[in-house]
Specification:
Length: about 500
Amino acid sequence: MDTEKKYFFLRFVVERKIILIFAFALRALRYFRRCFVYTIAIMNKVESALQRTTDTKALVIGVDTLPQTAEMFKSLFPAGRALVVADLNTWRVAGKEVHRILAEAGIAQDEPRIFTDPKLYAEWTFVEELDGVLAATDAVPVAVGSGVINDLTKLCSHHNGRRYMVVGTAASMDGYTAYGASVTKDGNKQTFDCPAPLGMVLDPSISAAAPAKMSASGYADLIAKIPAGADWMLADAVGADKMDDFAFGLVQEGLKEALCDPAGVHAGNVAKVEQLAEGLLLSGFAMQATLSSRPASGAEHQFSHLWDMEHLRFNGASVSHGFKVGIGTLASTAFLEMLLDAPVEQLDVEKCVAAWKSWEETERDIRAVFDNDPEFVARGLKETRDKYVDKEGLREQLTRLKRAWPELRGRIRSQIIPFGEVHRRLELVGAPCEPEQIGISRARFRASFEKIPYMRSRYTVVDVAFRCGWMEEWLDRLFGKGGVWQVEDRGQVSIGRGVPAASGM
């Protein structure tokens, strides 16, 4: 190769490298800019949320933030004594360190309360146990853990007339910053009114190192906010539940970005788990600001509530809240997709009104669908009575729905994630994506749909289908031949992947 050719060749190589380096730098700059913008947006949302929340006044989230626990404690509880509450696992991963940090900061402490029962869960026996500990001291509880430890400490702190703070160890649910605690009493899972923590610290590197199933459960709980948002749109449109724009935005803005990398969450990517945790915490703030779970809960959660009451267990163990809600999310999404394909503009409102049952007839249906089980019937009667409307009320609701539908349909279509994509993401994150994976047969799943209209007073897409007379047809599409959850005559099932399109109704 002569000198001139060598020169041009080397120049080409150098210029190409410069271009590649520049392109890489530009991509990196864009990535960090997106991260910076996202971080600023989250910070702004947190600040706005803290101004609206009734209970929580401080939140620190970030890698290596455990040392800030002491500073937060001193700020929120001046001159207070601390009492670390943990279980064996959370004591090992963070509790011992929190105890040391508080001690080195000169904060007086009681002996830590470490639950050692391997079957620990949010059950009344453990509430009474922790109540006894707190009754004997005036120390401020510092919960170190996730759902169970937080709910036990939240409720027991309230019982003993004091506030608490929490150091989260997993991105497993949205209850950290939510008002109320979910605890099982007398065999029934119930939500007890009690204030959210006064402050919270969460290190996503600790959460990312938690068992993958915990992040998977949190992811399933977060993706449930997608159909829950669509349910709220429907409830607002018919006049059943007015939208709170602040709370809705707190949950929904940035939600899809937080859900964009389920594989990263499953792999324990710290940045992705941090996004997941932020989404869950903001959902809790929205519930706290409204003193209602409406911003973060729709039909998908009603399936979970039903299965809680039925004491669902799989392989001898209880099923996590997120995993139940994940299957409920698929159910709700399937109904929302069929609603989008339904000719709502041509809905015969008067036909629906004529077919609408009186309260006396509805009461008989409730007793029948729950096989006269006293507990279920009592719940069904109360919840259904709260949202029941007479014929004139139904006429008004359906007329409003028809009038709003041209614009509402587009909003719901933009809101939801397609059924197949929800299924794929749940699978990628390591969460159940078929009902059998949580111990629900296809036949039982169909029966669950039929109970949902009576489970909660909250208006959802299931109520739309029920009041428009579409329930049976939609269930046949889901569970009949060719359906996504086809039930075979011989008791076997056929696994599908798509929701059949709705025909004219």
